[in-house]
Specification:
mainly alpha, 62% helix, 113 residues, 0% strand
Length: 113
Amino acid sequence: MNRRRNQARTPILIFVAVILCSGISAWFGARYVYFKNRQIIVNREIDAADRRTEKCRLDIRTTQMRMDELVSYFVIARKMKENQSLLRPIPSGVVEEVDSTLSTDHSVASASP
């Protein structure tokens, strides 16, 4: 496999350029994979945060529903009967409306049962 003397030889600069381009391509390929993996990780974190947010919203709605149930007049009256409480409902005739702007006293009390 002898070459002829007049046959053109491939310059070494071509080999250096091919190796350099291959290295740059490999580096950019690795960077692309790195950034794509980071994008996937961030998307998973966002999805996890959305799931936690929805869970918290559901917990808030459930807690509000339970609070509304506990504050219900009928539920409180039933629990008071179950606990044999001495507290009794106030008749509507005993209730007085007090205008706070006209009153100089800071407390109002009723002596009648």
